[in-house]
Amino acid sequence: EALTTALNEGADPNRRDEDGYAPLLYAASNGHARCIDVLRRHGADVNAAARCGRTPLNTAAAGGHTEAIKILISAGALVDWRESWNGSSFATALHWAAANGQYSAVKALLDVGATCDKLDTKHHATALVLACTQGIAYIAKALLDAGADADMANREGVTALMKASEGGFEDCVKLLLERGALVDVFPDDFVKLSETDELVGMG
Fold this sequence. Notes:
Elements: H1 2-8, H2 23-29, H3 33-41, H4 56-63, H5 66-74, E1 84-85, E2 88-89, H6 93-99, H7 103-111, H8 127-133, H9 137-145, H10 160-167, H11 170-178
Antiparallel strand pairs: 1-2
C-alpha cells in the first residue's frame, strides 16, 4: 500500500505538522488499525503527543477504536498517560473513553490495568464521575466492576452519586446505591429524585 511504500522509501514516521500531529495520531483518530501497525513497525513513537497534549492512545480511546487501542498498547503506549498542556495534566485514555460512552474502549483499557480512580485534573473527576455526569450507566457498571471507588469525590467534594442525581439519571443512581455509595454525604440541593424515594435510599 502507499503508506508502506512511502516508509520503505525513507519517509519519516515521526514527522509532525504545524500542530504537532504525527501520522500515527491521525491514524489513531480515525481508527485505522492497519496503518497504526505499519507505522509502529517502521519506528513511529506510540507515545508522541501533539501540541495539545493528545496522544495516539487517548485519541483512539475517545473515538472508541478498540483494535487501534490494542495495537498501541501492545507496542508500548502508556495506558495511564495524562495528556499535558502548558504543564497541566488532564485526561487519561480511560477518561476519554468513559466520558464518550465508548464501552469497548473502556473494557480494553481496564483489561490491561488502566487505573480506575485516576483524576482528570481539568475537571477534577474520575472516569466514574464523568460517566455518571452524563448518565452512562453501562460505563459506570464496567468501572465499578473493575473496582472503581463509588464514593471518590472531585476537588469540590462532588461524587458520582451527586452528579447522577443532579442530572436525574435514575439508572446510575440505582446502580451506585446497589454498590454501596454513601448517601449520608449527599448535599440536600443535589437530591432531585425525591419522588422515587427508593432510588435515594429514603422511605
